[in-house]
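QA checklist item 7 of 12: single-chain prediction sanity check.
[x] sequence parsed
[x] length recorded as 138
[x] structure emitted
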Amino acid sequence: MEMVDLTAVGFYDALKGKNLIASRCADCGDVQCPPRTICPNCWSDKVDGIEMSGKGVLRTFTIVHIGLTQMIEAGYDRFKPYCAGLVELEEGPVVSAQILGVDVSQPESIQIGTPVRAVFVERGKDDAVKTFLGFEPC
């Protein structure tokens, strides 16, 4: 894999290219997503960028009726809620993201342990388009 920018800017640039990146510590092997320049496990600065598979398992979720400003701007509100969850990636890290492709009107139908895969959601218009990480059942 080519050199990866292990900053927030680098992470979001990778999402634009439909890639999910992380960092792996050369000393202890800890994997962090989003990537970090210093390992929070052993404090080493010997970290390398890696590309993630984007596959994981839904570990927990909630249905959000009153969301963040960016989600309200995307059209979600108390009449159109969305699902947010924690996904444990195949490579180990746990990430938070919107969970798409589930029935938010029937949360009991959403199952912990469901295999999911990364999707890259574009929001905004023209030069203001941003790409966000999401997951959907596979």
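[x] summary fact logged: The chain has a mean pLDDT of 94.
[ ] second reviewer sign-off
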